[in-house]
């Protein structure tokens, strides 16, 4: 079969066939690069378990004698440390209208709770503006006190015995009643009307537990702050918002198409939250609050902010455990 | 001369007819008389030329398309995606900073926000028009298109409440910002990642080694050379002019492809480097915009020093831990001039640290003044300078991409036409050459 002198068809055919096969091979081998990895899935944080209940709220610490002169805090006290620092560090809220809110026209924090902070700064420095405000979410208030991030928290902080394990409260300076905020004309008058519906409150608040304890078949959803609940109600995602009347009054004032309805579901007393390691500061703050109670300026502040919305109760009489 | 040529193969054919039949059965390539075999090999070569021409035309068209696409559609989409991200992030940063001022929103701030939203909408419309049906990028584009009016609505509600002096506005602002940070910006980032990958794929396609064409061409060349050589030694004659022309045409087609590949490869390599630089600079711009939003949000939220931790987390990747690496280092490694950006970043981070020092020592109002400030000593002014420097550096790199891709287009402008024509010419020449030679046996 040797074709020494003949025309060789085989070799050119092999060349072409091989080239054709290889060329075909290159088009069959997948060359596209690997697909991009899928975006990471962000897991929602698990809700914190509610603190176990306890029975009895204990009374606060009695003020010791008359208040020291502003700007002359006794050496060695917590107040002296604050005075040396030059400013009081207070944990507050800035979204609760008339209570603790940032006035968007001035950028300043205002409201009943803010007045109390200024009152304490006045007593320490003789200057109500020596304050650094730090805003905390409702759920982070206890942590702020425990971690000594602030000197005190004034932010609708209800005195409860569960919180008293980690926070020393002043005597309550204001009483609040838990009720409902609903759209006008919704027909909802009482919490029972919410059966099968959805109600919103803030994460980590006492209201959340009060609502869940009610024998009404409703869904309780939570947002970081009560105003976020109102936005959801305005957007039609929830039927009602539950919180303290004082907070709801400020919200009703911002949206005239809402109203506060229903019986009182629970009552609470707001106190100034402080560290358990600073009993001297607690006694001092109780003294400052007593002064405001006695000269009527505390009630006057409540009336000035909340008067047009609700008839604010006068500050409750303090009780001390000494 | 001719007699000798004819006698040997024909004698052989007569001498072994049985063997020839057996051989034909075994392999149809080796049987038959010399002119038959010549015609057969000629037909084979012509077929090879036609196949090579078709393959060259198809892959030449593919590559030109890839380069054209990378120059037009995909590059436009990638630039839309990056611009979209910038506009959205900037709108959010501007709105938040406007709020921290605690006074009437400045006309400049308002105009900047409106311009951002308008540009984002324009980019979305443009991107949507470039996406073929079923393209994976339609998912993020849909997410963005449906959420942009929701975001703008939340912002307008926030403004209305703010103007009435009611703090519900801040809650709306926070909700809008959350929508932007958690849903819209990730979608814009996804769009950008998809388009950057598509662009890289187009560059790869446009400059990949054209194996199919090269293999076919080389096989063809080997076959032509083999046949020409065999004919020359078999007949002791000069090379067949048809085969010579055919071989040269095949070689020319191969050289054309080789040169086009090398030139396109170098041009697209440069485009790819510029693209890497733009990517790194885009990432840097995104990071500093987020950090700027955070600077304002920390003041709006009055969260104190703890909220500021995100700032360092956002700015460190820009400069790297030692100040000379990070995203700017990557852009520099890809050939970008980032000196101005680097010094602007340094001076803004410094101003930010002053803002934090003011806020942490209770001088909140002074901290706010610096953040919303415009003169070069304030955080606001220095951030604007940084944003400008980044925008300029990105523009330079984008021009670099356009120029490089234009060169790639030039390099393969005739690739889909000329090499296939050369292959066809080779086929024609081979056919003529072989026919002439086979004709000599009559």
What would your notes on this structure say?
The complex is a heterodimer of chains A (322) and B (442). Chain A contains ten helices and 13 strands. With 322 residues, chain A is α/β, with parallel strands linked by helices. Among the domains of chain A are: 78-173 and 271-306, 3-Layer(aba) Sandwich (D-Maltodextrin-Binding Protein, domain 2), CATH 3.40.190; 176-267, D-Maltodextrin-Binding Protein, domain 2 (3-Layer(aba) Sandwich), CATH 3.40.190.10. Chain A starts with 9 loop residues before the first helix and ends in a 16-residue tail after the last helix. Residues 31-50 of chain A have low confidence and may be disordered. Chain B is an all-alpha fold. Helices cover 84% and strands 0% of the residues of chain B. Chain B is built from 15 helices and no strands. In chain B, helix 7 runs antiparallel to helix 9 (241-301), helix 8 (211-235) packs antiparallel against helix 9 and helix 10 (309-319) packs parallel to helix 11. The interface between A and B is large, with 59 and 69 residues.
Structural class of chain A: alpha/beta
Number of H- or I-type helical stretches of chain B: 15
Would you identify the regions of chain B where 5 or more consecutive residues have pLDDT less than 50? 1-26
Q: What is the name of the CATH superfamily of the domain at 78-173 and 271-306 in chain A?
A: Periplasmic binding protein-like II
> What is the makeup of the main sheet of chain A?
5 strands, mixed
Strand content of chain B: under 5%
State the total count of DSSP E strands of chain A: 13
What is the H-and-E element order of chain A?
Answer: HHEEEEHEHEHEEEHEHEHEEHH
| Terminal Cα span of chain A | 122 Å
- List the chains of the largest interface with their residue counts: A-B, 59 and 69 residues
From the 3D coordinates, which CATH architecture of the domain at 78-173 and 271-306 in chain A would you assign? 3-Layer(aba) Sandwich
């Amino acid at each position: 079969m040797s074709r020494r002198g003949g025309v060789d068809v085989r070799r050119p055919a092999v060349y072409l066939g091989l080239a054709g096969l290889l060329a075909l091979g290159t088009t069959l081998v997948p060359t596209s690069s690997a697909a991009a990895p899928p975006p990471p899935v962000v897991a929602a944080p698990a809700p914190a378990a509610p603190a176990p209940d306890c029975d009895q709220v204990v009374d606060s610490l009695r003020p010791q004698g008359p208040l020291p002169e502003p700007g002359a805090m006794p050496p060695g006290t917590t107040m002296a440390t604050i005075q040396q620092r030059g400013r009081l560090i207070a944990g507050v809220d800035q979204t609760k209208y008339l209570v603790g809110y940032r006035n968007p026209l001035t950028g300043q924090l205002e409201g009943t709770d803010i007045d109390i902070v200024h009152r304490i700064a006045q007593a320490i420095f003789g200057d109500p503006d020596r304050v650094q405000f730090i805003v905390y979410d409702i759920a982070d208030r206890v942590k702020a006190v425990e971690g000594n991030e602030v000197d005190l928290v004034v932010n609708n902080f209800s005195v409860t015995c569960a919180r008293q394990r980690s926070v020393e409260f002043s005597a309550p300076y204001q009483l609040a009643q838990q009720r409902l905020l609903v759209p006008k004309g919704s027909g909802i008058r009482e919490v029972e009307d919410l059966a099968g519906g959805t109600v919103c409150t803030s994460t980590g608040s006492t209201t959340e537990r009060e609502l869940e304890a009610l024998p009404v078949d409703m869904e309780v959803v939570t947002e970081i702050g009560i105003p976020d609940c109102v936005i959801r109600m305005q957007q039609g995602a929830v039927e009602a918002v539950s919180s303290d009347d004082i907070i709801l009054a400020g919200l009703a004032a911002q949206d005239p198409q809402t109203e506060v309805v229903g019986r009182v579901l629970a009552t609470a007393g707001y106190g100034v939250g402080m560290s358990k390691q600073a009993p001297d500061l607690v006694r001092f703050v109780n003294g400052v609050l007593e002064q405001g109670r006695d000269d009527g300026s505390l009630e006057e502040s409540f009336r000035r902010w909340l008067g047009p919305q609700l008839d604010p109760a006068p500050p409750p009489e303090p009780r001390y455990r000494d | 001369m001719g007699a000798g040529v004819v006698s040997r193969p024909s004698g052989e054919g007569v001498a072994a007819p049985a063997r020839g039949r057996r051989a034909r059965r075994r392999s149809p390539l080796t049987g038959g008389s010399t002119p038959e075999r010549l015609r057969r090999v000629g037909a084979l070569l012509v077929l090879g030329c036609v196949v090579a021409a078709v393959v060259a035309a198809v892959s030449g068209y593919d590559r030109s398309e890839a380069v054209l696409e990378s120059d037009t559609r995909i590059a436009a989409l990638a630039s839309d995606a990056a611009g979209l991200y910038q506009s959205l992030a900037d709108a959010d940063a501007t709105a938040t900073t406007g709020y921290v001022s605690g006074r009437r929103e400045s006309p400049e701030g308002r105009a900047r926000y409106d311009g951002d939203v308008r540009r984002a909408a324009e980019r979305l419309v443009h991107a949507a028009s470039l996406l073929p049906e079923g393209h994976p990028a339609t998912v993020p584009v849909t997410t963005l298109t449906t959420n942009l009016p929701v975001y703008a609505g939340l912002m307008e509600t926030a403004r209305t409440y703010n103007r009435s002096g009611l703090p519900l506005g801040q809650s709306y602002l926070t909700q809008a910002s959350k929508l932007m940070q958690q849903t819209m910006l990730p979608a814009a980032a996804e769009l950008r990642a998809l388009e950057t990958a598509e662009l890289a794929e187009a560059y790869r396609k446009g400059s990949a080694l054209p194996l199919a064409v090269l293999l076919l061409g080389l096989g063809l060349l080997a076959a032509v050379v083999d046949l020409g050589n065999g004919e020359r030694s078999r007949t002791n004659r000069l090379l067949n002019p048809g085969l010579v022309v055919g071989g040269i045409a095949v070689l020319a087609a191969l050289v054309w492809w080789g040169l086009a590949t090398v030139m396109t490869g170098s041009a697209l390599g440069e485009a790819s480097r510029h693209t890497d630089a733009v990517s790194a600079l885009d990432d840097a711009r995104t990071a500093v915009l987020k950090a700027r939003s955070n600077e304002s949000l920390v003041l709006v939220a009055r969260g104190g020093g703890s909220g500021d931790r995100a700032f360092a987390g956002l700015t460190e990747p820009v400069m790297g831990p030692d100040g000379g690496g990070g995203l700017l280092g990557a852009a520099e490694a890809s050939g970008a001039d980032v000196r101005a950006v680097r010094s602007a970043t340094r001076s803004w981070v410094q101003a930010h640290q002053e803002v934090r020092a003011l806020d942490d020592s209770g001088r909140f109002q002074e901290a706010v003044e610096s953040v919303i400030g415009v003169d070069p000593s304030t955080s606001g002014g220095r951030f604007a300078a940084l944003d400008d420097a980044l925008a300029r550096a990105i523009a330079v790199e984008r021009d670099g991409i356009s120029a490089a891709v234009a060169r790639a287009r030039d390099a393969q402008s005739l690739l889909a036409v000329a090499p296939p024509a050369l292959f066809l010419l080779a086929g024609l020449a081979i056919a003529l050459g072989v026919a002439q030679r086979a004709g000599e046996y009559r």
